[in-house]
Amino acid sequence: MAVFDLFVFQASRLKEMGKVGSEGATVNNRMRPRYTGLVHMKITMDAVPLKFVDSVVELFGMDTFARKVRHPLWKDVVDLHRRNRIYYEVYFRKEEGGIRHVLRSWKGNKVDPLINMRMLREKGRFARIVKVCDSSRDRDLSYFDEVEALGKAETVKLLETISPLIDPVSASFCSEWGSTYCTRMLLTSLFKRAYFRYITLKYCGQIAYDFLEDQINNSPFLINVQIKGENWPKSTFELITSFCLKGNPGKRVSVFLFRGIPIDSKYVQHLFDLWRTNGNLQFELYTTEGIVDEGGLRAVMEKGTVTWNCNKRCYFFQHKTTKSLAILSSQDHVISCYTCECNLSEECTLKKLYPKYH
After folding, report:
1. Which domain of life is it from (predicted)?
2. Is 152 buried (19+), middle (13-18) or exposed (0-12) by CB count in 10 A?
């Protein structure tokens, strides 16, 4: 995530939370937008208070720290966080006696039963949670036996405690191996309290839909959604469409639909039409079941350039007015869109993967 994106995000976040006091009053005046949502670009790094710099750096995730920072105002703060940051994954498991949880160090990939939430809070602002996972059906996790099971009220309180520590820039949520009861409790407790970059979600009732909708609408760093299980409402496809439209140069988003969530040719046609209208989309839609009525897309596909890619037939379409490419297939990756990013990054995905169409 670009520094400026984090800068803008934290500016709005501080304003909403009321954390910009007298020290930040000058900053707010300088940053007063000409129209909603934009930060005035004439502000210089030297004019930004240390408090604001620190609050922005706090948002950087595992992969967003620059290797070298020259500006002295930023360098000291970035180095401080890089030295002291600790990252943990939290795993939950539903059992007859309640719900157990363990913390695993991301760096060492080891479970430490001695680490508890009190100790984690004592780490202060340098503690980050980068994964929340329901592992109720994973029977290989013997280290759960070393921790005490909690009741529902205690588990809910625990989740409310850890939610501020979840890193929205790099955290993932996973319920692939979870139980309906445990996943529902996790989602209910984290709903509108925490945001993620990666989500793997099985349907467990209305809260699953509400949680996904809130994440798609409000998580600024969400780039990957995997939807599993049956009984998802038809309106889920409207959420998927909204998410695909958030993919643009500099932010590629991916949607994976697994068994039990079939898609038809009309939906793929709809996404294809949005790409033709928009011209700068960056997304991919993957399905394990393919298109249920492949024939419905045949007329559209035949207008594209046929290419064999990874042992499957794909149809390539170049946009008429922008440097953008759409690829259709009746198997797995049913539609993928790429748009030139050369003006934003040294590495353009379209140029790297499909130089012929760049």
Report:
1. Eukaryota
2. exposed
Structure tokens at 151: 């009741």
Higher pLDDT residue, 108 or 81?
A: 81
In the chain, domain spans: 3-83, 223-358
C-alpha to C-alpha distance for 131 and 228, rounded to whole angstroms: 18
State how beta strands 110-111 and 224-228 pair. Answer: unpaired
| Residues 258 and 226: beta-carbon distance below 8 Å | yes
Q: Rounded CA gap, 127 and 85, in Å?
A: 6
User: 78-88: per-residue pLDDT in tens?
Assistant: 777 777 788 88
DSSP single-letter state for residue 321: S
Q: How many residues does the chain have?
A: 358
CB 304 within 8 A of CB 315: yes
Instruction: Provide the CA 76 distance to its chain's centre, in angstroms.
Output: 28
Please name the residues in contact with 301: beta carbons below 8 A apart, sequence gap of 6 or more: 315, 328, 330
Residue from 182, 189, 207, 204 nearest 100 by CA: 182
What was the pLDDT predicted at 139? 66
